[in-house]
Amino acid sequence: MHKLNPTSAVNPFRHPPPLTPSADPWLTSTSNWSAPSAEDEVLSRLEAQAVAAAIAQLPPDQRSVVDLRDVQGYSGPMVAKALGLTVPARKSRLHRARTAVRETLGVPT
Fold first, then answer.
1. Which sign, positive or negative, has the C-alpha torsion 33, 37, 42, 43?
2. Residue limits of the RNA polymerase sigma factor 70 region 4 type domain (predicted)?
3. Domain ranges of the chain
């Protein structure tokens, strides 16, 4: 009896063949990539303005956490260190701030 060595077996997922434009219709079709319409751009600007207004209404301590974490994209520990908070305190303030923004915008939870 011979035993099959699992490392010598061919695994198609380990080294998949490279995609070629002829093999994948998404790589050849540019009709799926359209520019946003003027209406979509206006709506996204209005949404961004509403979110900015909701963030501006937050108390300063919550606003600073949201700004550093969600707007500027800093990591949680970096935000906590920059504001002189513990990580649990930063999480609590961020949760309260996000909840207040959702309520201001009327987003269902």
1. negative
2. 49-100
3. 39-105
